[in-house]
Amino acid sequence: MLSLHGKVALVTGGAKGIGREISLELANHGADVIVFNRDPVELENVLKEIREKNVRAMGLVVDVTRFKDVEKAVGEVINSMGRIDILVNNVGAFPRKLFLEMNEEDWFNMININLTSTFYVTRAVAPYMVKQRYGRIINISSITGLYHGVPGLVHYGAAKAGVVGFTKCLAAELAPYNITVNAIAPGPILTPGVKSIWTPEDIKIQEFINPLKRFGMPSDVAKLTVFLASDYSEFITGQVIIVDGGLTFVNPRIVVKEVLKSFKE
User: Fold this and answer.
1) Across the chain, what does the average pLDDT equal?
2) DSSP per-residue string spanning 88-126
3) Is 128 a catalytic residue?
4) Would residue 130 count as lying in a domain?
5) Percent share of the chain, pLDDT over 70
6) Start and end of every Ketoreductase domain (predicted)?
7) CB 180 within 8 Å of CB 135
8) Cα(151)–Cα(36) distance, rounded to whole angstroms?
């Protein structure tokens, strides 16, 4: 089995949704896991689950949009755990708002949560990885930042596209230190957040048009994260890997034909 024993992993937003699944999957493979999260109740719940897997767990309530808070928290992790080998920049949000209704605060909130936080946490962690000459950095982007334009997500799409550029350029800079930097771009993933804004009909349509005929699950992203965090991926860096069941490559004409066929039936 792929093993992360002896590694220390930090996951931002690691107590719910995709982040929670990533934290637990890393622990399943033997990594000690640190979780940054803003909700203390969610944090305690996931830490309890992580510890049940017989690995070390540490949780900190951190606002990752404030660099001083991030820097302090990372210092606490180093003092307690001694090192950080794996960083997963997962924290994110996607409240919809139409562009013509969007104000400056809406814009910068999404940029800060989805992009600036990635810079802040990586900037605080990277010097320790450089010193130990080892690291795995995985940034969670989105197909909205690559292919799919979605009304109401201009700010989110811009931020997630920024994560892609950040990943590629940082990979080039940190490669000499044996640090890999990659991004994962999920398609629609069935998280509590998605369930709260998607109707059952929306979910059925998504399952219908997806080549694999199902919705993505947090575990689909978590499993790839574990691979990228491991030494099995040591010759992979600067890449953006899409996890969407084939949604982005399916020919729209085929989808339309399938829809029309279903109506006839």
Assistant:
1) 93
2) EE---------GGG--HHHHHHHHIIIIIHHHHHHHHHH
3) no
4) yes
5) 94
6) 7-187
7) yes
8) 30
Can you state the angle between helices 117-132 and 154-174, rounded to 10 degrees? 10
Q: How many domains does the chain have?
A: 1
Please give the Cα distance from 130 to 179 (Å, whole number). Answer: 8
Average pLDDT on 27-56 reads 97
Query: Does 1 fall in a domain?
Result: no
Please tell me the distance from the alpha carbon of residue 248 to that of residue 93, in angstroms, as a whole number. 22
CA distance 171 to 190: 30
Tokens 């997806």 sit on residue: 210
Given the residues 128, 134, 156, 177, the one annotated as active site: 156
Whether 253 maps to a domain, the answer reads yes
- CATH value at residue 176: 3.40.50.720
**Distances from the Cα of 176 to the Cα of 55, 90, 220, 231, 236, angstroms:** 31, 25, 30, 16, 14
Encoded tokens for 126: 């990277």
> Which of 36-70 are b and which e, b meaning 16 or more Cβ less than 10 Å from the residue's Cβ?
bbeeeebbebbbeebeeeebebbbbebbbbebebb
Does residue 97 fall inside a structural domain?
yes
Q: Beta partners for 34?
A: 10, 58
| Structural domain of 24 | 8-264
* pLDDT, tens digit, 9 for 90 and up, residues 65-100: 999 999 999 999 999 999 999 999 999 988 889 999
Beta strands in 212-251 (DSSP E): 240-243
Q: What CA–CA distances, in Å, run from 90 to 41, 156, 212?
A: 19, 14, 25
Q: Tokens for 166, please give them.
A: 């950040």
Does pTM top 0.90 for this prediction? yes
